[in-house]
């Protein structure tokens, strides 16, 4: 071993290149294995993770608020059930301070169903009143630091009804599928404000199956119940909409499911892709180790020949070579751990996730196996090559012919092929990302910002926001302002019977509701105009006109008058646009006395009169409004339309950046 250390010391550049390659590759693998393990644990640590299911459609996990109480009692395959609403924002006033809280509506059976511990509350009397609330431990420590919160009174902003704290629950941890919640409210809150059996996608129903029931039996029973309740329901998932088919998803699979839901979710393909690229990088570094070791094998030929003359067998030579490989790899593994620790903040920022290094038995076992495998794979080829050196060859000087073996050349070619494939992958991903960023939407997105004053409320009218409207309008950088309820990127999906007389044919509409100012700012190109636009009249795009056979003789849709046709535009974002075969785009002019969810602001140009960016001026104004209102926790009130459309692509951008980083390191190792 001493001779090996002397050899490394005499070949410092060779040693540095090998250490760099293996250490960086192992560091990345350690990081991504830790990230992958944390991702795969979400939903799986619950004791009943394989026994609790979510009953949904063929495309989504959520159903109506009345699905469980109306249908499940008649299904013997379902033993127990509980409902959980989607996360919402509720502004709550406590001791004259305003908190924008993350709220979750649950049934009284939620805590016993999942086994969460409650303090201060009687499980038999949970949510006996709609004004009962349960708060999380972290929220209790923040709002009531010096007293027991049970019995305290809280108010919803702009409402007089007091809510009473009846208990405290521990925070959902990182392995729960539920997002962090400040308060849990009664499901009656959702029962009172949602259509009982017609508003889909609002509530998730968790179930436990009866003893002896398979999930397939339960799915068939659910499907029959759905079809009895809704006569349009089909057996298989139909297109891009959710009201078809049936699903029964185990709790342990919810995090990675492709079905639509609003709880915590992960991208399994992202995790697997990153792991695959990291392993390819590791293989490239191992090839590099083999190539350099074989290339310098001749420098140790005399040493090996001398050992053979002194009585070493072939297996002793192989064993010594593998031992050296294990020692070298162990040092690289320790340095890789250091690389992982130093790189963790950057990786967490890129992945937007916390990476936890666990030192439990499983992690240690995986680390030991990884180290052993890498050491063997890295050392076996050089060991075989050096074992073939014979003393007589060294004496004749013919050992160099054996060192330049075809196998070495194969590894060099393989290493470069891997790099070429990685570069091609990176270029392809970059081209796809460029295409998505520049995908035509069919409407204007420049110099437009969305200001959301209604988030956290059940809905506001224009009168409620008139003061903010006038103050925004007075800003020098603001050209004009419109109001809306939904926009093309947040359109509502609705259905109607075919007015041609086929009552079994349901037409799916993507409906955006805005005033005429928003319509003008978005720059929809009018192709045909049948009547004068007005309140509650609708526009359709050319695709909808052609498919629905609309004309001046047939201008009724959604019980509204069709005032004209605009050029085709894209609903939702580049990452979530529904299929054109299924959903038709509709623009409805908003009633000024109806509910709105925000303002669409058009700015004059990129700079305001003060020299700052126009959007920054608008955003600063919105931040001041939040401070004046008194929110202890806030939300991002103002966003540009371009940012809203680009936001769903951030995950892909992170993946691309990670892959490019790995490609750069792999190419660098080969170049060295």
Average pLDDT works out at: 81
Main pleated-sheet profile: 11 strands, mixed
Q: Rg, please?
A: 32 Å
Helix content: 40-55%
Number of distinct helices: 20
Strand fraction equals: 15-25%
- Overall shape: it is globular
Q: pLDDT below 50 for ≥5 consecutive residues: which ranges?
A: 500-505
Helix/strand/pairing class, anyone? alpha+beta
Number of strands: 25
Distance between the termini: 26 Å
Q: What do you see in this structure?
A:
- Helices cover 43% and strands 19% of the residues.
- It has 672 residues and is α+β, with helices and mostly antiparallel strands.
- Strand 8 and strand 9 (162-169) form a beta hairpin.
- The chain is globular and about 100 Å long.
- The two termini are 26 Å apart.
Index terms:
672 residues; alpha+beta; eleven-stranded mixed beta sheet; six-stranded mixed barrel; 25 strands; 43% helix; globular
């Amino acid at each position: 071993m001493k001779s090996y250390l002397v050899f490394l010391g005499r070949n410092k550049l060779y040693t540095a290149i090998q250490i760099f390659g293996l250490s960086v590759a192992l560091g990345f693998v350690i990081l991504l294995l830790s990230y992958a393990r944390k991702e795969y644990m979400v939903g799986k640590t619950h004791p009943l993770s394989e026994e609790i299911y979510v009953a949904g459609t063929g495309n989504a996990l959520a159903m109506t608020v009345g699905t469980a109480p109306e249908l499940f009692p008649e299904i013997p395959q379902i033993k127990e059930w509980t409902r959980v609403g989607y996360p919402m924002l509720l502004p709550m006033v406590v001791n004259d301070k305003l908190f924008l809280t993350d709220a979750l509506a649950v049934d009284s059976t939620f805590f016993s169903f999942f086994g969460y511990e409650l303090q201060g509350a009687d499980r038999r009397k949970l949510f006996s009143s709609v004004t009962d609330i349960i708060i999380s431990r972290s929220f209790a420590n923040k709002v009531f630091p010096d007293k027991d919160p049970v019995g305290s009174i809280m108010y919803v902003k702009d409402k007089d009804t007091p809510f009473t704290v009846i208990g405290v629950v521990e925070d959902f941890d990182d392995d729960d599928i539920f997002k962090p919640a400040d308060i849990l409210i009664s499901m009656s809150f959702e029962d009172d404000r949602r259509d009982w059996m017609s508003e889909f996608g609002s509530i998730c129903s968790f179930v436990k199956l009866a003893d002896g029931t398979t999930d397939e039996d339960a799915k068939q029973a659910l499907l029959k119940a759905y079809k009895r309740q809704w006569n349009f329901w089909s057996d298989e998932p139909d297109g891009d909409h959710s009201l078809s088919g049936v699903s029964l998803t185990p709790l342990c699979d919810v995090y990675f499911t492709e079905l639509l839901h609003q709880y915590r979710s992960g991208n399994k393909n992202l995790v697997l892709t990153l792991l695959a690229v990291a392993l390819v990088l590791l293989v490239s570094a191992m090839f590099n180790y083999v190539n350099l070791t074989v290339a310098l094998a001749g420098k140790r030929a005399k040493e090996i020949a001398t050992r053979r003359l002194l009585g070493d067998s072939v297996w002793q030579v192989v064993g010594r070579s593998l031992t050296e490989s294990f020692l070298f790899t162990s040092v690289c593994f320790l340095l890789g751990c250091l690389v992982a620790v130093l790189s963790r903040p950057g990786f967490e920022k890129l992945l937007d996730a916390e990476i936890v290094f666990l030192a439990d038995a499983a992690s240690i076992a995986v680390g030991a196996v990884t180290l052993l495998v890498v050491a063997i794979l890295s050392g076996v080829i050089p060991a075989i090559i050096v074992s073939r050196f014979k003393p007589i060859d060294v004496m004749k000087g013919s050992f160099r012919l054996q060192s330049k073996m075809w196998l070495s050349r194969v590894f060099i070619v393989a290493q470069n092929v891997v790099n070429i494939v990685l570069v091609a992958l990176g270029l392809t991903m970059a081209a796809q990302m460029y295409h998505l960023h520049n995908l035509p939407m069919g409407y204007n997105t420049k110099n437009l910002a969305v200001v959301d004053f209604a988030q956290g409320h059940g809905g506001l009218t224009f009168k409620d926001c008139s003061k903010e409207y006038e103050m925004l309008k007075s800003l020098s950088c603001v050209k004009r302002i419109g109001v809306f309820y939904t926009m093309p990127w947040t359109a509502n999906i609705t259905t109607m019977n075919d007015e041609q007389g086929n009552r079994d044919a349901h037409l799916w509409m993507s409906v955006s509701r805005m005033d005429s100012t928003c319509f003008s700012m978005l720059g929809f190109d009018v192709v045909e105009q049948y009547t004068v636009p007005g309140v509650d009249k609708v526009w359709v795009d050319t695709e909808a006109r052609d498919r629905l056979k609309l004309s001046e003789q047939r201008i009724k849709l959604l019980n509204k008058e069709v005032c004209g046709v605009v050029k085709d535009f894209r609903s939702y974002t580049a990452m979530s646009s529904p299929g054109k075969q299924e959903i038709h785009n509709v623009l409805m002019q908003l009633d000024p006395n109806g509910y709105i969810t925000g303002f669409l602001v058009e700015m004059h140009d990129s700079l305001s009169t003060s020299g700052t960016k126009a959007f920054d001026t608008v955003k600063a104004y919105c931040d001041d409004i939040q401070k004046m209102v008194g929110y202890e926790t806030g939300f991002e009130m103002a966003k540009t339309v371009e940012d809203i459309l680009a936001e769903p692509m951030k995950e892909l951008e992170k993946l691309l950046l990670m892959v490019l980083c790995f490609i750069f390191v792999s190419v660098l190792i080969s170049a060295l």
